[in-house]
């Protein structure tokens, strides 16, 4: 029982800390556009936050020229003045493009370079992006703590009345506090 209780406390604490971080990012997103990215020469994954929305983006680069790449591999952080978030591609360049209110999801590609000349440098950039509002992420981080607290609070302790919580060891048939009937010490 102690192990479950400790696990519940750790999950609740992590949920609360994650929720507080999301709230701080939410407020900060109206001042600054923050982007954390990890890239290799051919792949780049980013997490961005601006104007109350999160963006998760993955880009893959296909090129006929080894000189065309995303840049130095590794982690990077960029910060700029906050502007409303726009999807990474136009709807006409996407195989999948849906937007419902503040949510959007796109999958598509964009061609660039010299495709007309044989041997000219050209490339395709393939993109997958999910944009969600901060309040949605906040709900996802708060839910584990709320569910665990609700589940724990709703369950009566063994040997106690389910209605009022009174100790039933002295009178297992009926609760003397609220009058609720019990069956052999188990609240009905």
Task: Report on the architecture of this protein.
It is a single chain. The protein has two domains: 139 residues, no CATH class; 32 residues. Helices cover 26% and strands 37% of the residues. It contains two helices and nine strands. A seven-stranded antiparallel β-sheet has the order 4-1-2-3-7-6-5. Strands 8-9 form a two-stranded antiparallel ribbon. The protein is elongated. The mean pLDDT is 83.
List keywords for this structure.
alpha+beta, 2 domains, two-stranded antiparallel sheet
Structure at a glance:
By secondary structure, the protein is α+β, with helices and mostly antiparallel strands. It has two helices and nine strands; from the N terminus they run H-E-E-E-E-E-E-E-H-E-E.
How much strand?
Answer: 35-45%
Range of helix content: 25-40%
Sequence of secondary-structure elements: HEEEEEEEHEE
**What is the approximate shape?**
elongated
Counting DSSP E segments of at least 2 residues, the number of strands comes to 9
Average pLDDT level: 83
Number of domains: 2
- Rg, nearest Å: 27 Å
Which structural class fits the helix and strand makeup?
A: alpha+beta
For the largest beta-sheet, the strand count, sense and barrel status come to:
7 strands, antiparallel
How far do the termini sit from each other?
24 Å
Order of strands side by side in the largest beta sheet? 4-1-2-3-7-6-5
Number of helices: 2
Unreliable spans are: none
